[in-house]
Model the fold of this input.
Amino acid sequence: MSESDTPFRAPVGTHDVWGPAAALWEGLVSTFAESAYRYGFSLIVSPLFEDVGVFVSGIGEASDVFRNETYVFSDRGDRRYALRPEGTASVVRAFIQHHPTTPFKAWYVTPAFRYERPQKGRYRQHHQLGAEAIGTSDPAIDVEVIALAHSFFRAVGLTKFRLLLNSMGDENCRPAYVALLSEFLEGRETELCDEHQTKWRANPLRVLDCKKPSCIAVIKEAPRLIDHLCDDCEAHFARVRAGLDQLGLTVEIEPRLVRGFDYYTRTTFEFVSDALDAAQNAVGGGGRYDKLVERLGGSPTGGIGFGSGIERLLLAREAEGVDTPLLKRNLDVFVVDTTGADVATAIAAELREAGLAVDRSYDERSMKAQMKVADKSGARLAVLVGPDELASGEVTIRDLRRRDSATDQSRAKREAVVATVTELLVNVQKND
Ligand SMILES: [Zn+2]
Ligand SMILES: [Zn+2]
Done:
């Protein structure tokens, strides 16, 4: 059956992760887990669907993201749910529900669902790694969240990325700035992009991060939010910059970097890859959301988070030509047995017990057929048992990557198979 004849395929805009890509995936996740752990974050796993209100409170029922992109459904009990469109809201909901000691520092890996037009790098189910720190407004934690992200990107092999930083102000200083920006946009309305000529009033801040050249040209001359921060926001921003500087992290202040929702406050940041096209070059980003806990029904509590799309990260690695594996995921041994497979069962069990990665063949196939599978398996060594070996109480051990040399094959006593294989693996790996 060819692929197009199969009755079921993964839904439009989704993809299966398997084979070598899955090993990379697993490597990214375990690298992130390791980085998060070093920064004092622990794992949180929460439901993929939540009461629709959890996401509505975060992104607003009137927002385009909610109306056009969020998967909303009713279950058999007529409860109205939504599939998680992003990672933060569920963590904040869990924080409010469980009253953990603060700061609550949690990391996650999760699918996120958005009904988008499928295209390269955009999926209806994509996957995110993220971290949230809730319960303090201390600028030191902003610095740590950004440093965590930075060290993670370095750990997965990226080097061609830049850190952009801005402050969104807060409810004390932002309204006056938005008024100032509106006054400016009013006078330049006809120069904006088609969409913003008519829609800029709904959310003037959105014009700041519009990617259309006409809007970019106008915004270059617009007043900047960081020049209109109140004293508290100014002091917070200064301490974040000083902290990043202390850690040796280079930042570019980017006044156009804003987030569309008004629960975002103060620190906002983005990591962009210079190896990717400018329209989709963000490999991660985040910011402070000091109003979100209240929005979801909790008491006023500061928080900051970071998220990174796994698919985009993999594209960035590819674009940079990074091909270092993140995890060792190779079989050590493949067991071939043409004597009825009882010996294979026993030897595989013994080698696995000794901590080795072992596979074997099934269905009592011929030596030739079994060796073919062994060659394809990627295993370093094959342990062979035929009638000869069985009669003499031995096994043959073969190096699957050095087939020409006289030393590529040896015999070992059946009872010494674990010791011999372990020693051989150490030696071949030394010589690799
Ligand atoms: Zn625009
Ligand atoms: Zn302020």
Summary: The mean pLDDT is 92. The pocket of zinc ion (ligand 2) is lined by residues 169-170, 172-173, 229-230, 232-233 (CB under 6 Å).
